[in-house]
Amino acid sequence: MAAPRLALSVVVLVLAVITVTEGMRGTGPRKCCFRFNDSPVPKERVTGYVRTSQRCSNPAVLLKTVAGRQLCARPSDAWVKEIMTYLDNKPLPGQGTIA
User: Fold this and answer.
1) R_g of the chain, CA atoms, integer Å
2) Strand, coil or helix: 45
3) Domain map of the chain by residue range?
4) DSSP secondary-structure letter at 46?
5) Where is the signal peptide, in residue numbers (predicted)?
6) What CA–CA distances, in Å, run from 14 to 4, 23, 24, 29, 30?
7) Stretch 69-81: mean pLDDT, rounded?
8) Of the four, 38, 64, 65, 96, which is 20 to 30 A from 51 by CA?
9) In terms of pLDDT, which residue wins out, 33 or 2?
10) Is the pLDDT score of 85 beyond 90?
C-alpha cells in the first residue's frame, strides 16, 4: 500500500519540477530579424548595437539610431562590421583622455 503512494508522490513531484523549470525558461528570444536594412546607415547616426539571440533563425545585429529606432542588419555586411568596430572603439562618456 505504501509503494503505490510513494510512486505517485514521486511522479507528482517530478511533474511539479518540470512545470516550474519550463515556466522559468521563457518563451524564446525577445527580438529576431526577418527583414534587413540593405542601405548603409552613417555611423554617426548609430548610438549602439546588439546581436540577436542565437536561437533566432537569422543571425542579425540590431542597430540603435539617434532617433531611437532599431534597424535589423546582417552582421556579415561590410558597412555593419565598420559600424560595430567604430562603436567598439568609441570612448564611453566620461572616459576622456587624461592630460
Assistant:
1) 23
2) helix
3) 2-89
4) E
5) 1-23
6) 15, 14, 16, 27, 29
7) 96
8) 96
9) 33
10) yes
Which residues contact residue 51 at a Cβ distance below 8 angstroms, ignoring those fewer than 6 apart?
59, 60, 61, 62, 75
Kindly state the cell numbers that stand for 27. 518563451
**85 vs 54, 70, 77, CA distance in Å?**
21, 18, 12
Give the torsion sign (CA, 37, 38, 39, 44). Answer: positive
* Span 51-70, pLDDT tens digits: 999 999 999 999 999 999 99
Please state, in angstroms and rounded to a whole number, the distance separating the CA atoms of residues 74 and 63: 10
3-state SS string for 49-66 = EEECCCCCCCCCEEEEEC
